[in-house]
Write a structure and sequence with these properties.
- This protein has eight helices and two strands.
- By secondary structure, the protein is mainly α.
- A two-stranded antiparallel ribbon has the order 1-2.
- The model is unreliable at 124-128, 178-191 and 199-204 (pLDDT under 50).
């Protein structure tokens, strides 16, 4: 018996309708685009009431500051908000989306900006990179704790997914690069040479 078999008939029909729209989209037989809406703040981190105090913190953010159980009500609320709107997307529960999890696991310091979170790499050289060199187990443990909580809360409500993680080059960049890769001058110069604009080439 699947969890879907325990849903009310009306909800099951709504889910089947969405699934048909998604299948039509991937089969390129849809007559209209898929539409989805997000209710609340533009910044994902600020949609979580449990994160309000952490967002105001000036010091580095540690995994112990994320009290997983306090996020439970946020996920339930956001699921209900998603269900209350006629749309094509499904709500998916992911470990607190605001945190740059992969960077944190690799030893980068995490800071709050008031509306989101950023990771700051320690710098250094990429040669001889060892995954164990600065791997931060507590961040991985907290990520998995979120996953277990979401699996329990989501049960017959919503699926559990992953937030934006990172690819290999992103990971190396966040771990070692501490300066901006592109200066304004470099961007202008590249644009000028691409478009053959002599005036901008000279100014760059």
């Amino acid at each position: 018996m699947t969890f879907a078999s325990r849903w009310p008939t009306k909800k099951l029909m709504a889910v089947e309708k969405k699934l048909r729209r998604h299948r039509d989209f991937w089969d390129r037989t849809n007559r209209e685009p898929l539409l989805g809406f997000t209710i609340g703040d533009y910044f994902v981190s600020r949609r979580f009431r449990a994160a309000s105090q952490i967002l105001a913190t000036k010091d580095p953010i540690g995994p112990e500051m994320l009290r997983v159980d306090e996020f439970r009500e946020d996920y339930l609320r956001m699921h209900e908000e998603t269900e209350s709107v006629e749309q094509d997307i499904f709500f998916t529960g992911t470990p607190f989306t605001g945190i740059p999890w992969m960077e944190a696991m690799l030893g980068c310091e995490v800071y709050a900006t008031g509306h989101s979170f950023v990771a700051q790499g320690p710098g250094g050289q990429a040669e001889g990179l060892s995954p164990e060199a600065r791997f931060c187990q507590p961040w991985l443990d907290r990520y998995l704790e979120f996953t277990r909580m979401l699996t329990e809360v989501g049960e017959d409500r919503f699926p559990v997914g992953q937030p934006i993680m990172r690819g290999p080059t992103d990971i190396v960049g966040s771990r070692f690069v501490t300066c901006r890769l592109f200066s304004l001058k470099g961007i202008v110069s590249a644009w000028a040479h691409t478009h053959g604009d002599e005036k901008w080439q000279k100014s760059a």
